[in-house]
């Protein structure tokens, strides 16, 4: 079986107490992530500061020797709070992340009204470690 990515942070920050307040304070926060065969899927919440906004996820598999960035897509059926918007992303990791010892790091960027805000897990980046799946015992 292929290795799986194991988050080194709580994978559902949006379910923790005070999440809405953290979005208000910091303007952007990771809501959840899930490792899938296609890559790492997740959602981001941003404070709705203006109609036009851009959300992206910058990531690396080699400790920032190189990196890539993917745009996140606006989710129209988002939160009903009227204050925040939800964006979804998929990091297409492929074979590079399949190494059992791979470490994925990422941060979220939110650009709106001439300003830029980041969610980098309080300066530690969001990190996931590749871990070999243990086949079920026969």
TrEMBL record:
Cellular component terms per the entry's GO annotation: protein phosphatase type 1 complex
InterPro entries listed in its UniProt record: CBM21_dom, CBM21_dom_sf, PP1_regulatory_subunit_3
Entry GO MF terms: glycogen binding; protein phosphatase 1 binding
Classification via PROSITE patterns: CBM21
Domain spans labelled CBM21: 20-129
UniProt xrefs under Pfam families: CBM_21
Domain of life (superkingdom): Eukaryota
Single Gene Ontology BP annotation: regulation of glycogen biosynthetic process
PANTHER family for the chain: PROTEIN PHOSPHATASE 1 REGULATORY SUBUNIT (PTHR12307), PROTEIN PHOSPHATASE 1 REGULATORY SUBUNIT 3E (PTHR12307:SF55)
Listed name of the protein: PPR3E phosphatase
Species, as recorded: Nyctibius grandis (Great potoo)
Name of encoding gene: Ppp1r3e
